[in-house]
Amino acid sequence: MQFSVRASLDQFALAHPSGDGQFRISVAAPAVEAPGAEVPILFVVDGDILFGMAAEIGRAMSSVAGFPAHYVVGIGYDAAYADFLKLRTADLTPPIGAAALEDLGALGTAIGGDRGGGADGFLAFLTATLQPAIAARYPQTAGGTSVLFGHSLGGLFAAHALLTRPDSFAAFIVSSPSLWWDGFSIFRTLPAFGESLARLARPPRVFVDVGAKEQDLPTSVPEGLGVSLEEARAQISAARMVDGAKEFADALRAAGLADLRHIAFAEDDHVSAAPAAILHGMRFALGRER
User: Fold this and answer.
1) Whole-structure pTM value
2) Is the Cα dihedral 128, 129, 130, 131 positive or negative?
3) Of 49, 258, 269, 280, which residue has the fewest beta carbons closer than 10 angstroms?
């Protein structure tokens, strides 16, 4: 088995579906040669901060046959961090009501909550533009297992994609999802999801995770976020990250989803849960969970 010690990176741009700006698409080929066709692909939203992590975890794990060699595709913006926060909110979130937006306070201002609501357009971009572009550039991936990974607001997007288009990916890794967006309104889409799921010949595999410490109240907040400690504590209490993830997984089971795993990583918080989610989520998505 040949293992490349040099990390692979290919990048290209695709126009944003709004017609304003573009995405920076980053692609990492497998470090281990994957013979034949139907090579799996991991699609990573928030590629500016998570693509490199996902690509290197994939390299390491495939080198010891932890799971099959696969391509990693990151979708990013190549923007300054303050702009990135607002751009991702615009693409990763469903619409939000005025009252829910007001409740976000300074956090809503920092992340550009008033720009939210583009999740359906972003999902259409992934399925109608990006997936065909990847298949054309890397024909060995045609027919391979496609996995969507999203963390935080990206986890909310992965949940939204699952509930509204369960056929859009073969597997979904819903990591630390921000289900609190718009007052947990995402739960109202579950009845329709059950109906869509019943019509699928091959339902997706779904991994839902959260850091078990995500509901712990903080003792400080990062500088520059524009949120006081009191506001941060109130928002974390209202977000119910740990409880919400479990309730979401339970609701998916009740809707008839069979290939599902839910886990709360015992020692992890909202940030440190991300690499654990990539590792264990891909094991599950690719059938290597044991």
Assistant:
1) 0.95
2) positive
3) 258
